Predict the 3D structure of the following.
Amino acid sequence: MCMNKKVSVIVPVYNLESYIERCLDSLLMQDYDDLEIILVNDGSTDKSLEIIEKYAQQSESIIVINQKNSGVSSARNAGIEKATGFFIAFVDGDDYVDSDFISTLVEGFENGAELSMVGYRIIKSDGICQETDDNTLRKSFSTVDLLDRIYDKKLYLGFSFNKCFLKDIIRTYNIKFDGSVKVLEDLLFCIEYISHIQTGYYHSASKYSYCMRTQSTLNTKKNLRDKTQIIALQKIIDIAEGYPSTLEELTRNRLMNLMIAVYYAGNFFDYYDKSGINDLCDEISKVKGKLTHKHKVMFFLMKKAPYLSYMASRTNSLIWSKR
């Protein structure tokens, strides 16, 4: 039985004084008994640390880790090192969860799965709630199925917050969040984890509330975001090589499309921060060796006939989106 095994919930905290209490209240209301809540304060400069230490004094299930500001990946990794649970889940400190969030995730392991996933809802900054699924899907997926559908917007496989993982697999294969990437770090972590399992289970009921904020890590300067996306996609291609799935080709297509977008933005559009365009071009030149012959031709066209390359890329994207 899985329902009597401890779950470690890891919550990174950075300047969340306006949101963290709501998150913690929702975790303390879980209908699952054996719960360990690990709060990693990542060098907050507001009252976040004071708030979470107060909660820790009131609940034995809460553990506080205090570290200098090192980023969300470092915070999650610190939580993984501290975790004593059989399962590991991740919750963002500005979000909140339903009372049966953990129990629903753990139920997914009863069918022999090694990864459990649930749906989530989006709470927009104006308070409007958007459900991301119809709550009717209950399905098991093989490793190849999961990798094939990793970019499927209906399954949300690229996020860590709507999933529950086996700690033994994370520890055995030394799976960590990559601090060198600032975008797609969740996707990279999930793909690496999935590459080491046989089955996953998805319960589409929305049990997690993802709260959109006007100011977030997504507002990172665009050139830095694109650079780290290129790094992450390169690493995903490395993982995908050798698997009988479409993940490698899908990722190469995303990589090529991103490089073309970077080229256009850096050369033609005023909104793009050009201070880092040379660094981005260096990253593009590094990745050329990972491209297929088709993509090398597209890269050549990008420099010699940019409009033609752009139209070819758009056509290719439309074909893949309909598969």
DSSP finds twelve helices and ten strands in the chain. Confidence is low (pLDDT under 50) at residues 216-221, 268-272. The longest helix spans residues 247-268.
